[in-house]
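Tutorial, part two.
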Amino acid sequence: MKFKISCLLFIKDESDRLLMIRRKKMPNHGLWSPPGGKLEMNTGESPVECAQREAFEETRIELKDNDLKLFGYVSEKNYQGNNHWLMFMFEVTPVLKYTPKPIDEGEFKFFYRSEINGLSIPPSDHQLVWPVYDKRNRGFWGLRADCSSFPPDLKIEVSP
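Running the prediction step on this input gives:
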């Protein structure tokens, strides 16, 4: 299996709602996820550079290094039986004052955090992504998951 590295961006609007994208492509076709994307490893792109590039490509927001707060990572073995993933999770500090236009990856919409668990999101995000997001103010978090079975076998690698 290939190992893929990505970033997820947690972007809020002025009402403290989180930006989500309903994906038109795999993985997670038809499901809501935070925006983000894969590192361009052939160029030596860092996770911060990936977050900045993806933010601009998807939302047209230009971010500086200090606009991003890395609060955790999730390492998923055998996700959907296709790949291993390492996802860096960034909180974006500037608020977005508009809903981005749809792109070839999907359509955007803002949601309150309390609404997200009721959306069609990837099943593993309930155990992996959102619990780490909810603990972001308690320090840096790392989570390792073996997705060979559901629910995934979870282990905390780094704790605050």
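Helices lie at 47-59, 113-116, 123-127, 129-134. In part three we will examine how such features are distributed along the chain.
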